[in-house]
Give the backbone structure.
Amino acid sequence: MSANAEVLKQHLIDPEICIRCNTCEETCPVDAITHNDDNYVVDATKCNFCMACISPCPTGSIDNWRTVLKPAAYSVDEQFTWDELPAEKEVDGGLLEAEALTPIDAAEAADDEKALELDSSQLADPLSGAQVPPWSASHPYVNLYGHKAPVTATVAGNFRVTALGTDSDTHHIVLDFGSTPFPVLEGQSIGILPPGVDARGKAHHARQYSIASPRDGERSGYNNVSLTVKRVTTDYDGRAVRGVASNYVCDLKKGDEVRIIGPFGTSFLMPNHPNANLIMVCTGTGSAPMRAMTERRRRRVDLNEGGKLMLFFGARTQRELPYFGPLMNLPKEFIDINFAFSREEGHVDGAPKRYVQHLMRERSADVGALLQDDNTYFYVCGLKGMEAGVLDALKDICVGRSIDWPALHAQMKREGRLHFETY
Ligand code: A2P
């Protein structure tokens, strides 16, 4: 080992495939992953090869390695400038790639060097949700089309799904792939390549959107998908900005052509076996995968496959809740719908808001009963802030029923029964 100690398999992210979804940065337990406006990169001085980031990455762009001499490892600043990964270089001294420190060797070496620097919380599993799909999920196809060969879809429709006159301008967009194969499953996402270039003259990066339609198409038997996209007009701090991709998508007209990559996603998938219960928790456009799963189940309702559907859906007001009308038309015996409106008329600024996690607590008897069923699958999609609130609610519901939440949480993750997609 000591003869090769200066050689490293450096962990890198392929900027051509990465869809800048931030999953890796959120997942990394030692903060080795960072980003600028261009790229997501791995800091070789921090990465301890724990591999926690590998499987959550929806594209596989995270799984790239180059053999380098340790002191000549690519710096973070250098990686920020890349449009593509550098070719594998011959390492000085003619060391063969096979002789280089493998990630696992390096992990052991890194353990020696760095373990003392890490406290136990950094080494704990950083993910709240599962990295594996439900056991009965169908096989997902991923990365069929990449940046170099995107597929072109035609806009078949674009409808606003929130009331006019509200701040939430959310659209339902249907994209048709014609005769080009684009197989998807509920819970998967696609990347849209906005036309044009950014302020630096570089092509815009792909933006990831969850698919809102079931696997057999927005309209059954059609080779199309739908998306739920909210027009971005402010940044996280409330300053006015014009979101490049969301404005492009929300302004699309029937017949327009759109460049698409994907599909992506291998774990946020629905079970296919009879009697599987789905608990779905979402805010705003996080409703897209829930719509896809609900519609899949609705189309199969005559098969009497069993299993309950429970939905917790949060929005500012009823008028700003995407698909409010169609949701209200679903029979109560088919789906148990719970809306949380945070800014409904009468709400006073500063007063406590009603969020999805509050509704879950109100329905704790039913949520708790479902949690005690091994056939229950739990999905959360929407605002990042909701994640902690939902986990707290789950914990309290379990405590109230003498369920060992830490054990159940670990089991649900292991069995692909608890999924988060937040942004
Ligand atoms: P609010 O923004 O009134 O605090 P948006 O319309 O921005 O997509 O948000 C959808 C809904 O999610 C809104 O009702 C919003 O409430 C709510 N929300 C905001 N923060 C959280 C949170 N931490 N947990 C749950 N819901 C939240």
Remarks:
- The longest helix spans residues 385-400.
